[in-house]
Amino acid sequence: MSLQFERIRDTNLHYSFHSGTKGARPIVFLNSLGTDFRIWQGVADRLPDVPKLMMDKRGHGLSDMGAISIEGLAQDVADLMDHLGLTAAIICGVSVGGLIAQSLAALRPDLVAGLVLSNTGAKIGDDATWNPRIDAVEATGLEPMADAVMERWFSAEFHKTKSAQLTGYRNMLTRTTVEGYAQTCRAIRDADLTVSTRAITVPTICIGGSEDKATPPELVRALSDLIANSKLEIIQGVGHLPCLEVPEIIAGHVNDLWRPLNQ
Fold it and tell me: What is the pTM of this model?
């Protein structure tokens, strides 16, 4: 996939777009807090040769900062999809990426043919959850909390057997800017998509991890209960980022949703 940049409203966004088979239904990937779009590469590589878009949201990866809200991040996705001529896509979002995907479905339903909502909810946490983390990161940076974040991101088995990968993903987290991380935390804290998510009618798969300490299975189950006819999949033995722990399983679920919608 080529690495590209585009000025979207007030912010320069970094993205990767693979054009794939002409006329095939596109797939869009939205990443989590403290990561960049590379977390989806293992999933994207296992999917058919179709148009695929991965992007760094504001304050993450190689994208600029700028004002951050969930609706504003969804508008960034919409504007970039418009720029690339993408419509009626499968939108895959993990964690805050799942919030952005839900917001996009409300903001621009023409862009969304189906949703894969991984390790997310219609509302994630509250003031008591997020304010201490925001205060801590602004006071001392990401390094002191990095080990605790890794405990939420990955299963115990991953910690035991994937030490090199764990170090790499820890580096990805700690190299995120403090401003980008803190502002995204505020955006998550302030977002409650319960009403708009209840109105979603497109085919949807909600995915959780049995060892996810950030968005536990009961939160994902509550999300699935909000969306009529959605499918719930709880993957055993994985944490908050199954796109990294078990990309082959996530790719299978994405393909199961994509295949009938591409006919």
Answer: 0.97
* DSSP β-bridge partners for residue 117: 93, 206
Total Cβ atoms within 10 A of residue 206: 26
pLDDT band at 10 (very low <50, low <70, confident <90, very high): confident
The alpha carbon dihedral of 70, 222, 228, 238 has a sign of: positive
pLDDT tens per residue across span 121-163: 999 999 999 999 999 999 999 999 999 999 999 999 999 999 9
Handedness of CA 188, 38, 72, 256 (dihedral sign): negative
**For residues 106 and 45, what is the distance between their CA atoms, to the nearest angstrom?**
29
CA nearest 39: which of 121, 119, 112, 142? 119
Scored b (16 or more CB within 10 A) or e, 211-232 reads: bbebbbbebbeebbebbeebeb
Q: Which residue has the higher pLDDT, 22 or 222?
A: 222
Other C-beta atoms within 10 Å of 31: how many?
26
CA 108 to chain centre: 17
Q: How far is CA 38 from the centre of its chain?
A: 11
